[in-house]
Here is the input.
Amino acid sequence: MKSARRRRVLIVGDRRRGRVSALARALEPALKRYVTLVGVDLDSRLDLRRERADLVIVLGGDGTMLRTARRLHGNPLPMMGVNLGALGFLATVPAEMPPEQIAENASGTLEIEERSQLAVTIVSRAGKKVFEGDALNDAVVDRGKASRLVTVGVRVDGKLAFENRGDGLVVATPTGSTAYSLAAGGPILHPSLDVWLLTPICPHSLTIRPVAVPGAAEIEVEVLSSGASARVSVDGMDATRRGLAAGDRVVLRKSAHVVRLATLQGDAFYARIRNKLHFAHPTVS
Here is the structure.
């Protein structure tokens, strides 16, 4: 009788982060007892778009998970994050878990969650595309380092939705609803929902509120006025090499690429927001 094929696993991380190298060294012998370890990349040398594996173990926090998703660029390898950061909404395996247990989990049954992404295109007022990329969390148009406000007009499927004057606007995926959008007053969305979230940042208005739009919609954010340092950030990465000028546009639609997250059995979304955000914890009298 043929034995089952061992899962092929790749470790990635950033050795410049304190505990990454030590954790990788501890994990290697443990993993080799349960899976086939196909590589360890702590220096971003591999082209993850072309790698072949059954699972990528990401050592780091949510920022490392976002960077790894960017490096995969559509390669549908599931990522399992071992959290060396703060909250750990994407990197959900605690770093305190013994290496042997992490390795055993990596070889066993995992829950695979598919997360939608935004395809982000920045178009100059002259009509030239100056950036194209995907966002797993969000795309943010903000005033940068300038003290003056930025005014943007937001169109959904070609129709004017609203104008916002303030510190900027977050366009978030359901995955990103627990990131910057939440800090700016947006709601928590379940990651399986097919919507995008438009969350104004410190709007200079008493009436404007976050808006959810269908996942099939095309969103266009046009800069109407800004200081010289207004910018676009895609998953925390500055996507503009120059300041945004009036007439520059950010066009957002559903990406063809999904990100696949591997989580441990029983690691439910609602448990994450309870444990990490202390959501709806009972008050103590």
